[in-house]
C-alpha cells in the first residue's frame, strides 16, 4: 500500500496469514467477510456450507472449528452452531416443519421449548402430541401419517427425568420421523446418535462453554442431507453463532469432559448426603437407586448422571425459597453447567405463575430446589448446604 495516502493505508492493514506453521489453538476469525481474486470463485462460494468462506452468516472458520469439534463429540455428520440454545431449537423446528405437520414431544420439556411448541401450534398450525417420556408405546400410539419429529430430552429440568432414548427412537424406526434429542444436561455422558437419534441439540451456554460467559447453541446431524436442509434455512433465519462466542465455546470444550466427570461425581456425592439428611424429604438424582429412571440411567449414562440434581427440604414452599437465599458459597441464579454451583427454587422463580396443581403436573414440588453442581470441593459445598438447610427447615 506504499504510495497511497494515510487514510487509504489505514483501511488496508496487512493481514497476516500464517505460512510454514499452523496454529495449535483455534484462531478467532472475528471478521465477517473474505475476499477473492476471481469472480467465479466468489460465485461458487454461495453454493453451500462447504465452499470457500465468504460471509459469516453462511460460514466462518472459527464457528466451523466448533461445529467440527461437536460433530466429532456426538458422532454426527455435520453441525450448525447458533446464537443460543433456543436458536438451535427454533432453527431445527422451523427448518423441518410446516403447517399441518405433527410432532410428538415429551411433557418434561425445557420451558422455552414448550413455549415454542405452543407458538408453532397456535400460529403455524403444527400439531403437538405430548407423551410422558416413560413408555415408548405412547409414541407408537401417537404416530400419524403427518408426524415429522419426535422431540426428547436426555435428562430433563428440574427433576432429572431420564428418557430411554434407544427405546423411544426405536418406536419410530421404519418411519420418516426424525428423532431430536436435547442433550444439554448430558454431554459426553450420552451420545444420542449412537442410540438412534437423528439430531442432537445443546445449549452450549451450559456445559460445553462451561464458564458462564457465553450464550450459544448447536445442532448436530446424523444425516448430511438433513444438515444441509437446516443450513439452507438457518442462513435465512440468521440464527448463526457469532465467532467470539464460538471461540469461547471451543476453549471451554477442552476441559468439558473433565468438568462433567467431576461435576457428576460431586453431584452424586451431594445427592447421597442430602438423601441421608433428616430435613430432606426427597432427592431427585438419576444416580440414586430410588430415582424412577435409575435403571434407564444405568444403561444410558453409565459414566455418571450429570451435575444437576433437585431435592425437597422439609417445610414446603417457604423452605425451598429460604434455602435458595440462605446459601453463601452457592449462588442463587438461573442456568446450569457452570464452573460455580448454582441454586434455584422453581416455585418462587422460573415457575412462579404455576399454582400447586400445575406444579404437581410438571413434577415440581412447592419446596423443590434445583442445584447445578460446580467444581468447588464437595466438602465446602456440603458445609454451605448444611447451614442453609438449618435455616430453611
Ligand atoms: C438452557 C437450555 C436451553 C436454552 O438454551 P439458551 O442457550 O438459553 O437459549 C434449551 N434446552 C435446555 C435443556 C436448556 O437447559
Secondary-structure element sequence? HHHEHEHEHEEEHEEEHHHEHEHEEHEH
Strand content: 15-25%
Instruction: Give the overall form.
Output: globular
* CATH homology superfamily of the largest domain: Type I PLP-dependent aspartate aminotransferase-like (Major domain)
Number of domains: 2
Question: Could you give the count of β-strands?
Answer: 14
Report the bound ligands by name, code or SMILES: pyridoxal-5'-phosphate
Task: Report the CATH topology name of the largest domain.
Answer: Aspartate Aminotransferase, domain 2
Enumerate the spans where pLDDT stays under 50 for 5 or more consecutive residues: none
* Share of helix, binned: 25-40%
Write down the Rg: 23 Å
- Determine the mean pLDDT: 96
* Secondary structure tally, helices: 14
The CATH architecture of the largest domain can be named as 3-Layer(aba) Sandwich
- Please summarize the sheet with the most strands: 7 strands, mixed
Structural class: alpha/beta
CATH class of the largest domain: Alpha Beta
| First-to-last CA distance | 73 Å
Offer a concise description of the structure.
This protein has 393 residues and is of the alpha/beta class.
Question: In words, what does this structure look like?
Answer:
The chain is α/β, with parallel strands linked by helices. It folds into 2 domains: 39-253, Aspartate Aminotransferase, domain 2, CATH 3.40.640.10; 257-392, Aspartate Aminotransferase, domain 1 (Alpha-Beta Complex), CATH 3.90.1150.10. Helices cover 38% and strands 16% of the residues. It is built from 14 helices and 14 strands. It has helices at 6-10, 39-45, 61-74, 85-96, 111-124, 136-142, 165-171, 224-237, 243-253, 256-275, 294-300, 316-326, 356-361, 378-392, and strands at residues 78-82, 102-106, 127-131, 147-153, 155-156, 161-162, 178-182, 199-203, 217-221, 280-284, 308-313, 331-332, 342-344, 369-372. The strands form 3 sheets. It has a 7-stranded mixed beta sheet with strand order 1-9-8-7-4-2-3, sandwiched between helices. Strands 10-11-14-13-12 form a 5-stranded mixed beta sheet. A hairpin with a 4-residue loop joins strand 5 (155-156) and strand 6. The longest helix is centred in the last third of the chain and has 20 residues, at 256-275. The N and C termini lie far apart (73 Å). The model has no long low-confidence stretch (mean pLDDT 96). The structure holds pyridoxal-5'-phosphate. Pyridoxal-5'-phosphate (PLP) binds at residues 84-86, 110, 112, 153, 157, 182, 184, 203, 205-206, 215, 217.
Amino acid at each position: 500500500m506504499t504510495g497511497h495516502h494515510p487514510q487509504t493505508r489505514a483501511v488496508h492493514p496487512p493481514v497476516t496469514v500464517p505460512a510454514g506453521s499452523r496454529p495449535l489453538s483455534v484462531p478467532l476469525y472475528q471478521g465477517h467477510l473474505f475476499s477473492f481474486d476471481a469472480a467465479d470463485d466468489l460465485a461458487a462460494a454461495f453454493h453451500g456450507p462447504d465452499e470457500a468462506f465468504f460471509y459469516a452468516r453462511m460460514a466462518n472458520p472459527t464457528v466451523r472449528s466448533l461445529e467440527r469439534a461437536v460433530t466429532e463429540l456426538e458422532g454426527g455428520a455435520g453441525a450448525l452452531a447458533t446464537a443460543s440454545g433456543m436458536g438451535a431449537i427454533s432453527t431445527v423446528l422451523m427448518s423441518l416443519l410446516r403447517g399441518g405437520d405433527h410432532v410428538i414431544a415429551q411433557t418434561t420439556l425445557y420451558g422455552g421449548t414448550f413455549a415454542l411448541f405452543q407458538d408453532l401450534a397456535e400460529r403455524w398450525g403444527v400439531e403437538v402430541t405430548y407423551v410422558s417420556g416413560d413408555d415408548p408405546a405412547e409414541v407408537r400410539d401417537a404416530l400419524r401419517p403427518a408426524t415429522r419429529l419426535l422431540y426428547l430430552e436426555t435428562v430433563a429440568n428440574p427433576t432429572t427425568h431420564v428418557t430411554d432414548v434407544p427405546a423411544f427412537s426405536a418406536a419410530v424406526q421404519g418411519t420418516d420421523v426424525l428423532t431430536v434429542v436435547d442433550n444439554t444436561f448430558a454431554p459426553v455422558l450420552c451420545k444420542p446418535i449412537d442410540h438412534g437419534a437423528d439430531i442432537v441439540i445443546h445449549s452450549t451456554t451450559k456445559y460445553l462453554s462451561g464458564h458462564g460467559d457465553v450464550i450459544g447453541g448447536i445442532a448436530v446431524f446424523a444425516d448430511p442431507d438433513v444438515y444441509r436442509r437446516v443450513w439452507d434455512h438457518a442462513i435465512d433465519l440468521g440464527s448463526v453463532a457469532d465467532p467470539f462466542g464460538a471461540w469461547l465455546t471451543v476453549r471451554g470444550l477442552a476441559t468439558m469432559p473433565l468438568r462433567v466427570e467431576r461435576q457428576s461425581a460431586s453431584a452424586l456425592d451431594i445427592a447421597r448426603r442430602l438423601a441421608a439428611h433428616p430435613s430432606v424429604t426427597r432427592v431427585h438424582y438419576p444416580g440414586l437407586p430410588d430415582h424412577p429412571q435409575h435403571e434407564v440411567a444405568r444403561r444410558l449414562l453409565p459414566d455418571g448422571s450429570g451435575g444437576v440434581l433437585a431435592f425437597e427440604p422439609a417445610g414446603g414452599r417457604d423452605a425451598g425459597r429460604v434455602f435458595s437465599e440462605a446459601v453463601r458459597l452457592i449462588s442463587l441464579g438461573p442456568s446450569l453447567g457452570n464452573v460455580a454451583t448454582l441454586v434455584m427454587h422453581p416455585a418462587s422463580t422460573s415457575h412462579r405463575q404455576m399454582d400447586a396443581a400445575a406444579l404437581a403436573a410438571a413434577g415440581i414440588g412447592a419446596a423443590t430446589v434445583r442445584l447445578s453442581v460446580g467444581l468447588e470441593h464437595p466438602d465446602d459445598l456440603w458445609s454451605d448446604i448444611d447451614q442453609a438447610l438449618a435455616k430453611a427447615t
